[in-house]
Structure to design on (220 residues):
């Protein structure tokens, strides 16, 4: 990796593969920004903004929010000062258009992608994880109620907010999200394969073990 400029990483993988957990930890360890489009959208939904109201319709169905909205959102986010120290994008790009537009934005910023981490987890495990997932609406930290529960069953360890089940983690919506991922996102990874920046990581293990595998894959 080129250490003369800020690091730029992408975290990819299907819903429930652990993208949020691992990109948050990695950003913290590396001192770079964690930019998760799902979190940015949920903030807009919680604040009941016009964008949030538009996005919610798609999110509740498990569909993607239109590219135009997403490209504008990420362009705006990458122009904020903290992005200059480097960043990890979590859940973006998810479509070919988003990937192409991201390349242009990064070129304008004098940036390029150092690594695309793909967390690979079998479908059965994904469905099990998402049905046991509870999320803190305040900080977005995710818990697995059997494998990684909070100290108090109902509340986030970090800020005490009551945990929620995301509406899009209901089983029917999960199945739809997995189909949308297979149809629209899995192929986007090929966009990066040619640049040989892709690091495939087996994500079927404990959080600590997967964290170790990611660090090894990045040569950290
Ligand atoms: P996530 O938290 O990454 O699972 O995202 C939750 C939901 O937000 C997704 O199911 C989509 O509806 C929407 N979303 C997040 N990121 C994107 C993106 N890059 N493109 C389109 N929709 C997105």
């Amino acid at each position: 990796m080129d250490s003369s400029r800020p690091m730029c990483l992408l975290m990819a993988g299907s819903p429930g593969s652990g993208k949020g957990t691992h990109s948050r930890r990695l950003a913290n360890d590396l001192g770079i920004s964690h930019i998760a489009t799902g979190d940015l959208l949920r903030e807009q939904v919680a604040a009941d903004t016009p964008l949030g109201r538009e996005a919610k319709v798609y999110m509740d169905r498990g569909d993607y929010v239109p590219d135009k909205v997403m490209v504008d959102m990420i362009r705006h986010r990458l122009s904020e000062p903290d992005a200059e120290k480097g960043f990890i994008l979590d859940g973006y790009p998810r479509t070919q258009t988003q990937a192409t537009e991201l390349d242009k934005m990064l070129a304008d910023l004098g940036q390029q992608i150092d690594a695309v981490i793909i967390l690979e987890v079998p479908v059965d495990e994904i469905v099990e994880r998402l049905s046991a997932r509870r999320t803190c609406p305040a900080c977005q930290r995710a818990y697995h109620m059997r494998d990684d529960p909070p100290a108090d069953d109902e509340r986030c360890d970090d800020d005490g907010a009551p945990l929620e089940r995301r509406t899009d983690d209901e089983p029917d919506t999960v199945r739809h999200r997995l189909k949308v991922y297979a149809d629209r996102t899995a192929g986007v990874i090929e966009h990066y394969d040619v640049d040989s920046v892709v690091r495939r990581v087996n994500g079927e293990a404990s959080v600590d073990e997967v964290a170790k595998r990611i660090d090894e894959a990045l040569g950290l």
